[in-house]
Design a protein that fits this description.
Ubiquitin-like (UB roll); 11 helices; alpha+beta; 16-stranded antiparallel barrel
């Protein structure tokens, strides 16, 4: 815990160093708006914070306990208006200058909002407090009178089916006797009712057909709400009235480019709009979502044309997108010890391989690690093929609404050649993926299978395995059969969000439980483990949770503060005493702790495992936290300042003395945390982002002297340089 105390102290010292002033650049007579406060004098239940969006002027945002480091940066200007000033203006945040007129505008805004919510006759007063060129504004609110609804009188057009259809839906009404009268609840009800009626076939109906009148005189403390639906809208005259009727689809057509080779039956099955069918907004939206989910079309346009008093034609126009292409990804890293690594990946995709919206993905990957002027090499090659069908196989389209779920079949082969061994891995999986409202994404794999075979094992490495149960059980031939899945939720599903967003990802794998039911029928190895094809099967559970949030602000969304927290753990049981190596956790690399190369951190406070010529540090558990401040510089170049912290640990104690430091223990948690800071440069080409990150170690748990000062950053094993494509998180 002493380590954590030292880290906290260092942060406080840094804050004190830069927090010199936030008002230095203000002119005479100017004041910085420091804080707004909204208070309600006559209610303890009203949420005063709900009125914050209606304040016309807001102070600078704060990250922690009223502290915004970029506000202080802005005040580092020297007043010359040249290079240095322009730089700090770009990096910093300009203070909000108090404007008295904005207070008056805010009072008007709040009053209107309270009336909208049903608080009639509310009063709003302001109090201004000035301290050292800072202004604190308090809005004191006295809520006005509210009127509960005593009764609702509904008047509907006579004749036809409309009155019957409307009254069949009254149980779902949002406004009821006993509720307080407000424009807010009436607006919500008209939106709900109009949507429901459109789904019943009333194509031309809108919320503007509703007219409301409230009688608050007949009963002094309540209101009688009169709801009228007229056959004309609020922007029309009674003379323009026309019957509110149901519409039926007359002609439905789908058009797409002639050069697009796709089976017509596929589009017909995805289209839920049929001739002779009663109009429904849900069917229109479902058709749009399902056709868009194929990703064959750059745009999906659904247009309606009224051809009669109760008939409409529907035209679905599809524009073809790029169906096939290549993707290239590259990561590279180096450190002060001379270890260099590069990881290229080349993928080919086709989004309509069998002319039915089937996706084909072929991928080649490599990972090469070496030292210059050294014969030691580590090579890895992998090929994979994936085929995705636009449905749950064996289930027809009609069972799905909205976005289409997909069935995935994957097969891959991986070859690893290291100084200690050669390993072949064959993997296959069968599963499903899809999304809910483009925010919640899921992948479920009922079947996941891996076959791992080791060859050409170095004699010294074999002896080390014999003496270390953790390594011995992790590095052996094994057979995995299990299930897994991933759930991902984001507040902003755009590929490049322009506003603040958060995300959550959870991944879990379970293997060996089904096979364990037949263990009694299997042959056993010398340790009593059940075997499939003369290979022990693995039995384990593994999960990983990722939480992230990115704040985006500034001109053209040019600044961002990205944060991420990762926690994962795996546990072997039953037929296994250790996780398979492929399921171990590791830290370090271009998208992890950037002061280290991949697989060079931990586990715990242990020294680098000399069993491996090329570093290969792994564990059963991982904790990691990352923070990165991003800012534009000039042209297409952007910069970043970041900090990373975390490690991996083992969870099972062995008889090997060297493994003691690798165990996760609360009493040594602080000293086992690896930490770095660094700077980066990004080249943003819009379609591609290239980055270079320099990570500098601050706290290295593998060292005897764990803190690394500025003098050690550019010495041996003090830094790591990474090249990557895309943001690290």
């Amino acid at each position: 815990m002493k380590t954590l105390t030292r880290i906290a102290t260092a942060i406080l010292v840094l804050i004190a160093a830069i927090s010199c002033s936030t008002t230095r650049v203000l002119q005479d007579g100017e004041y910085r708006l420091a804080k707004n406060k909204v208070t309600v004098t006559n209610s303890k239940t009203f949420n005063a914070g709900s009125l914050d969006p209606y304040l016309k002027q807001k102070p600078n945002s704060y990250f922690l306990l009223g502290w915004n480091p970029f506000l202080y940066v802005y005040n580092w200007q020297n007043g010359k208006g040249k290079g240095w000033d322009k730089l700090v203006q770009r990096l910093g945040v300009e203070p909000v200058v108090y404007d008295a007129e904005m207070v008056d505008a805010s009072i008007e805004n709040i009053t209107d909002r309270l009336t909208y919510l049903g608080y009639y006759g509310s009063t709003v007063d302001s109090r201004i407090n000035v301290k050292k060129k800072r202004v604190y504004v308090t809005y004191d609110i006295t809520l006005g009178k509210r009127f509960p609804i005593r009764d609702i009188e509904i008047t509907l057009p006579e004749g036809g089916t409309f009155s019957k259809d409307f009254m069949s839906d009254t149980s779902a009404m949002l406004v009821k006797p006993g509720d307080y009268l407000s424009e807010d609840i009436l607006e919500k009800e008209t939106a709900r009712s109009s949507a429901a009626l459109k789904n019943m076939g009333y194509y031309n109906f809108s919320k503007n057909h509703f007219f409301f009148e409230a009688d608050t005189l007949s009963y002094p403390d309540s209101a009688v709400l009169k709801m009228t639906i007229n056959e004309y809208t609020r922007n029309e005259e009674p003379s323009q009235a026309r019957p509110i009727t149901k519409f039926t689809f007359n002609d439905v057509s789908i058009s797409y480019p002639e050069n697009l080779k796709i089976r017509t039956k596929v589009l017909e099955e995805l289209n839920t709009i049929k001739p002779g069918q009663t109009y429904s907004t849900d069917n229109v939206n479902n058709t749009y979502s399902r056709l868009s989910a194929l990703r064959l079309f750059s745009s999906v346009n659904i247009g309606m044309t009224q051809v009669d008093t109760s008939l409409i034609d529907c035209r679905v126009n599809l524009s073809q997108s790029k169906l096939q292409g290549f993707k290239v990804n590259l990561e590279a890293s180096s450190n002060s010890t001379g270890l260099f690594g590069v990881s290229p990946q080349l993928s080919y995709y086709h989004k309509n391989i069998f002319h039915g919206g089937e996706w084909l993905n072929l991928s080649f990957m490599g990972n090469f690690q070496f030292k210059f002027n050294d014969s030691v090499r580590s090579n890895e090659f992998g090929v994979s093929a994936g085929l995705s069908f636009p449905r749950f196989l064996l289930l027809p389209y009609k069972y799905f609404k909205g976005a289409i779920p997909r069935t995935d079949i994957n097969l891959s082969y991986n070859y690893q050649s290291r100084p200690e061994y050669t390993r072949n891995i064959i993997s296959t999986s069968y599963g499903y993926n899809g999304n809910v409202k483009n925010r919640l994404f899921y992948q479920v794999y009922p079947v996941q299978m891996n076959i791992v075979r080791l060859f050409d094992m170095d004699a010294d490495f074999y002896m080390d395995l014999a003496n270390d149960p953790f390594l011995r059980n992790a590095y052996q031939n094994h057979f995995d059969l299990g299930s897994g899945g991933t759930i991902y939720y984001t507040t902003n599903p755009e590929s490049i969000p322009k506003s603040t967003f958060s995300y959550v990802r959870f991944q879990m794998d379970i293997a060996g439980n089904l096979l364990s039911a037949f263990k009694g029928l299997m042959a056993k190895d010398e340790n009593g483990a059940g075997m499939i094809w003369n290979t022990p099967y693995s039995q384990f559970v593994r999960g990983e949770l990722t939480l992230g949030k990115t704040w985006i602000w500034g001109k053209n969304s040019g600044q961002a503060l990205a944060t991420r927290l990762v926690a994962g753990a795996g546990y072997a049981y039953g037929n296994s005493t250790a996780l398979p190596f492929e399921k171990h956790f590791y830290a370090g690399g271009a998208s992890s702790l950037r002061g280290w190369q991949a697989r060079t951190v931990g586990p715990g406070t242990s020294q680098r495992d000399t069993t491996f010529v090329i570093p290969n540090q792994t564990g059963d558990m991982r904790l990691e936290a990352n923070v990165e401040y991003r800012f534009n510089m000039f042209w297409k170049l952007a910069g970043a300042v970041f900090a990373d912290a975390g490690n991996v640990w083992t969870l099972k104690k062995t008889d090997v003395a060297a493994s003691e430091g690798s165990l996760f223990r609360w009493n040594t948690f602080g000293e086992s945390i690896a930490a770095n800071w660094g700077v980066g440069i990004r080249l943003n080409l819009d379609f591609l982002l290239l980055r270079i990150d320099l990570g500098l170690k601050v706290h290295d748990p593998a060292r005897e002297q764990k803190w690394v000062g500025p003098g050690g950053w550019f010495q041996r094993d003090g830094f790591a340089l990474h090249f990557g494509v895309g943001y690290p998180f």
